Structures
1.
Amino acid sequence: MEKMMKSSTMFALLFVLISNLFAIIYCTQPLAPALYVFGDSLVDNGNNNWIPDVAKSNYYPYGSNFSAGPTGRFSNGKNLVDFLAEYMGLPYPPPYLSKEGPSSLTGINYASGAAGIVEYTGSQVGVVLPLDEQLANFQMTITRDLPIHMTQSQISEHLSKAIYLLSIGNNDYLINYLGAFTGVSPTSTVYAPEPFAELLINTLEKQLQQLYKLGARKIILNDLCPLGCTPMYLKTRPHKGACVDEINALVQHFNKRLPSMLQRLSSTLTGAVFVQGNIYATATEIILNPTKYGCI
């Protein structure tokens, strides 16, 4: 578990560095009415505080450089969502499960550390909120919470103008396919790498279609991180270069399928705009050239 948390923290920190590349100028007027977030520990800002699992980060040293201290962010300070919200001129979107979550009109964070695209990812750590459940919670926001403050036409406009960020899928490999917690993976005995990537892409495509049906139109979807560069694999698997190539190759089966899936959705869902966040390439660049980004 400690190794998992170190790996998660590493990439959360990389997200902060990546965010700084574009969050140089902050907006005084919001660029969108709201920011809605779905995903795993890279963007979770506290939902796991309220569920019975072991993937928590509401204690030090997490939050050691954050003004509010440990909040449930899997980083020492701000994460990607915080920088993006600041850039957009919005408050930080509160966790859905917090008392502030249901009443927020400027966005909500539904992400859950250790969650994945498929439902059974993360079950090794207890109860997590997989992407399907996060989308169900978003639907509750639309049907139960927003009508308290808006008419139906106002809700539709609000949803169509909001920004949606998804960062999900790393745990489907890290915890599920590679068996990071148990050391064994029943999934890898059932699926070869390419069929597993197809399973994830097909499942995610249906989930994005569901998000569209709920009213989302402007969607950012991050690709997966170079998991072979995490400390847990660098310390436990032989490798010749800076990273464990065989682990990164697994992730790339997914990443290489992502652009065509997003293009397919863009061409079939009227009015939808999908933008891919190239986390893999950016994180690899930082790992290979750390001094260029002030990491060493």
Note: The beta strands are 35-39, 163-167, 218-222, 273-277.
2.
Amino acid sequence: MDSQVSLQQTADNSIPAESTEHTPRMTRQQTLTLISMASVNFSSMICYSILGPFFPNEAVKKGASQTVIGLIFGCYAVCNFIGSLVMGKYIVQIGPKFMLVMGLFVSSGCTILFGLLNRVPAGPIFITLCFVVRSIDALGFAAAMTSSFAMTAKIFPNNVATVLGSLEIFTGLGLILGPPIGGWFYQSFGYEVPFMFLGCFLLIMVPFNIYVLPNIDSDPSKDSFFRLLTKVKIVLICYVIFTQSAGLGFLDATLSLFAMERFNLSSGYVGLIMLGLSLPYCLASPLIGYFTDKYPSTRSWFIVLGGVSTAVSFSLLGPVPFLHIPSKLWLLIIMLGVIGFSLGITAIPTFPEIITCANEQGYEEGLSTLGMVSGLFGAVWSMGMFYGPIVGGLITQHLSFEWAAAIQGGLALLGALFLAVYYLCHRQQHRRSVGEDSLRTDESTPLLTE
């Protein structure tokens, strides 16, 4: 408990260094777990990200409006939200290994089924089946990701940010390869092949993870999600997570159509544009993870910095009309790169920071607490993924992509400002309490000498 509390103080930055000295080399279990989690992140993200370049265009042909497309993306997030909370609460009872493996199995089956939806009639039937398949897929994804985060934090307790940052390399690779592979397969072979290929690839990960993953036993905790949200700092961090995921959800639902209409690009080139978002995130995550584990006191300001840079880049993505800057393809790609880098700066420190806050509130340092933190993270992320496509799609439909992107940037800026004000007030209060303690010590000294 004391070591977790000291992460808030600059003077105690030696804790991560001490932990690495005690464990200079990973154990076999840690190595296998790292390989397993990397495969889960990569395969899940590559299947998730293939929709962006071509599904909105295909859905329009089937009679879906921009708002309905946003709802299809958004329903995934709603079910992911519910699944993350439930899985996080009952991870001990279900078992983290079983939860992850079954999540992969369900998600792979739904990915294959989604590839068959082009055979159903256009209109309400197509739209309804899109909702059903995406919703079930979201529950499988929630199970896999919640258990993945919790198991990683359990097996690497002293280097959470470093390991998560390293794993995000494979998340970034999945996001990088998903859109161009999906776009290329769609252009070359049609709608079905991308889903069939990647669904089977995800299915192969099931027996691999059954063999590789360790079994982790733990006792269930009586703590709840609601007590976590009684701490202002956790609420503010959750809002920052919400703004980041809302931005990604907004781009998933709207960027491809904007790029096709504005710059006359094909779905394959739109997939390549997505590289501008994924590659910087892939590169930034391990660096930020290592640095924030070595210097835990910097986590807070990295989160603030990432929020500010996200706000600026979203405003220039269109760009926002009142700036009177003409829309250029090179500017779009650069701003996507800044958004990807900002996401790495912001998202990686949030998970270990919430764990620290939970331990400060008296939560037990075990799998049950890690499951709840992982579930909370996944639920808040899903809320943003629900808000981004739906509200972003509505604003894009009634105003424009430029204004919708600017509003999304404003949300990110608001979160960064709130968090910065909290940190400054908290630091000032801490200095004041330290000054009062030292003053009491000075006043009591003469009495002791007498």
Note: Residues 263 and 329 are 7 Å apart (CA to CA).
3.
Amino acid sequence: MSSLEWAECQLAEIELLMSMFPTQEELEITDQLALAELREYVEGSDTAGSPPPSRPQFLIKQKLDTASMDMRDVILSCAYPSEYPSVLPEITVRCSDLSRAQQTQLHGDLNSYLFENCQGEVCVLSAVDWVKDNLQLFINKSLSAAPTSKKETVSSHSEEVFSRLWIYSHHIYNKTKRKNILEWSKELGLSGFSMPGKPGIVCVEGPQSACEEFWSRVKVLTWKKIMIRHREDIPLDHQGEDSRTVEDIDSLRKFTGFEEAMFDPHGNRGNHMDLGQLYQFLNEKGCCDIFQIYFGIEGR
């Protein structure tokens, strides 16, 4: 699909959602400027004719029945990568009845469902329906599972899908953020790299739940702009065979460990990297196609 076709699908889905959830209490567009830019691009009123730099983000708010007959507030926080629906949207589900472990597992199961059933199609409504159908199961696990069994459940489930997240930030300068990125990736057993400067790039790969945990920590820091530019989710075939699954995950990694990568810093503040060297680095790792996704041009 072309950039325009991606944008047309995104705008059509948002307009459908706005008709289905017409009030602010049901659907909240958190980035109105991005929606306006998307509409201008699709309708051709943007004279520059280039894709907008960011895509809309929104919250879908639902009140769902539970087994206790109580109504539970559930919020789906949604953000579109530029290439959606060719790649999955970024969806985070928030519900006060879910433990952190069950929330992580829910996100993993939801992404696996969307990957298997909705790849290449708009899927936010499918995600809403899936959450309605499955939320109670995760609430029950949060209430009844002992801490040890919850840990085992999350551990086994986290290895069912291998993920690689390509994160884009307007810039990464702050030393504390750079330290957090390095420490969190190592704590969670993720490989990849981070490139500080302007723009900032982070790639993490490993078990899906660990990638989601990393992203949940990073995105709540203060950023001018940060988003998942592209993601790769690969279901594993050997569920329940722990040693074999770990081998599968390691065989899919394109990076050894996690590092902060610098590519001939230059500029007045030394905050710009040599993108040619970045392309060569990605090419050596078998990821050169990502360069065009980030920058819209082919590297060389």
Note: Residues 191 and 257 are 4 Å apart (CA to CA).
4.
Amino acid sequence: MSISRGQEVRMAEKHSARPRALSVRLLLLAVLLLMVFVLAVSSLLRGSARINSLQFDTDSSERRGNFLVKGKPAAPSQSQFPSFVSSEDEAPRPRTTTMKKKIVEKVDVESGPYHDWQHFALDFQEMLRNFKVYVYPDAFANQSYSESSQFAPIFLPHPDPFHPRRGNYFSEHMFKLALLGSSIITPHPEEAHLFFLPFSINLLRNDPRVHSEASISEFVTRYITRIRRQFPLWNASAGADHFYVYCHSVGREVASGLRDLLNNAIQVTCSSSYFQRCYVTHKDVAFPQVWPRLHEEVLTPPDARHKLVFFSGRIQNSVIRQELITLWENDSDMDVFSGSPPYPYEEGFRRSKYCLHVKGYEVNTARVSDAIHYGCVPVIISNHYELPFANILDWSKFSVIINHGEISLTKQRLLSIPRRKYLNMFHNLRRVRRHFLWHETPRGFDSFHMTAYQLWLRRSIHRLRLPH
């Protein structure tokens, strides 16, 4: 069949139109892909700018000390090293949802000497808002009951806790003084999470009427018997929501005459050895033993510390200390002395990189807080010692822990620590100093609030509802 000329032209035009249509479609697809690419790049740039803005806002807010509690400046960002006592000691104000989002989106937050700073700081805020402690009336002047009025000083705050004779028992007296001056106490027992038994083991020990361990135990038993009779508080929990505070080693014997006090009540104690039969870890609280000091210490920088080690102390009551003296007394790199050093005691901490805390009669001494105060990295040679605030502070970041059986390797261990690691420990030590300070009016993350936080964690026990 023949095809006319007109049909041939129409067929040719039809076939030539197909490539043109395909080209148009490809061009439209390319334009569409280009638009998608431009939108994606634009979105990415806006997201990056937003992240940078969040990081800048969070950092600058923390640098300004923008976290407040009761109108006071508070803890700095974790990228800073706090000074001894300043606005950095104050607690952060409760964070809003926006602030929490900024913190979550901020990357590479340095936890420093803490296990989990952000979790702790948020829970700490909840404690400040909600925690309440009822103090029995004997702790207040003119409120002692007739049965205990002749022993009123045993219950009242010490009038001069900074007196040098208070020494190792300073923390015991400062806790009571700080508690009574804090916002944590409540006059309404029905509001309280915990109840404070305000007797002082240190003052009982120094009172000739009740000096012996047996007499102290009998005194405390009579006191608990009286408050059980006059108040419904103890019987509601068999004493499980009550606590008492001490730093004298005889304190653990006070509960021997009363089973509920021994098994249920919370001990807040400097003698926090989980090897001792009367200390129950997770129920009881490890308490920092701090020596009274009125002034801050300007730290000697690391490069000006020319001695490797410092230790000075009695050795008669400690086989471990005797071994230490035998090994290192004549080592020129280590200032190790039996008894007092030939120079001021504090100078040993200032001139040394590492300071030894070696078990004596008890696992604890004030040497740990002494070392922290003077910026000397603590070397802890004291088996079974539950260190204060160990659930918050990562002690491996600012101290060295050595087993009794490895004391002969002490110098080798310390010399093997790289300089960079030592400097990190030194800077972390600066950051934890605020936790080993006492103030008559509690301040931020000081010893009082850190101890109160440990009690806050132990508040959730089962007890009967108190009658109104």
Note: The two ends are 114 Å apart (CA to CA).
